[in-house]
Amino acid sequence: MDIREEPIHGIEAKGLRYGKDKLLEVDAIVFATGFDAMTGALLNMNIVGRGGRPLRDVWEHGARTYLGLTTVGFPNLFMVTGPGSPSVLSNMVMSIEDHVDWTSDCVAFMEREGVASIEPTEHLQQAWMEEVGAIANATLYAGCDSWYQGSNIPGKPRSFAAYIGFADYRKKIQKIARDGYATFKLGRNAVPA
Question: Backbone phi, then psi, for 57, in 5-degree steps?
Fold first, then answer.
């Protein structure tokens, strides 16, 4: 049902009134507006990074991550199913488990190797977000006005923030871990608060 062609006019006891006085009878209605997918929960935490820069300011023109796990300027910030990960396009339980396992293995590596901080490089973060966008642009997702694009939030920068390719993604993050997180900047000194 395309509500642009036949908009919903109201909710009644038996269902939705739409179009030119049509009634769609339903048993239940899930009525949700304003859901800020991919970034809302992270931005609502008021996370502050290096130099006192809030994540909200850094992502003012769109979320930028490396692998959907980390972001430049926020050492030791690990995201679970963050922007740039398969997240909502995968089995979420599997994505969450992959991220929790990867993060806990990374923290264990850091403790074992005496690494005080980890964060991505700007170059790799940029390349990752370009890959996320290029894959999305090859699909029908790119042309949709939906919460996938942030279109339901007035003023939110439009971008497709989910990585399409779960199996490929899992292999990539596992290889990075096996290679000792060499694609990251690893700091051996304490990170200033």
Answer: -70, -40
CA-to-CA separations, 17 to 6, 8, 23, 35, in angstroms, rounded: 10, 6, 5, 23
Question: Is the separation of the CB atoms in 163 and 135 below 8 Å?
Answer: yes
Chain position carrying tokens 């990170």: 191
How close are the terminal C-alpha atoms of the chain, in Å?
52
Q: 152-192 pLDDT, tens per residue?
A: 888 898 888 899 987 799 999 999 999 999 999 999 865 55
Cα 54 to Cα 46: distance, rounded to the nearest angstrom = 7
How far is Cα 69 from Cα 84, in angstroms, rounded to an integer?
8
pTM of the model: 0.80
pLDDT digits (tens, 9 = 90+) for 85-122: 999 888 889 999 999 999 999 999 999 999 999 999 99
Q: Six-digit token pair at 96?
A: 């969450």
Decide: 43 and 54 in contact? Cβ < 8 Å.
Answer: no
Q: Crossing angle for the helix pair 166-178 and 92-113, nearest 10 degrees?
A: 10
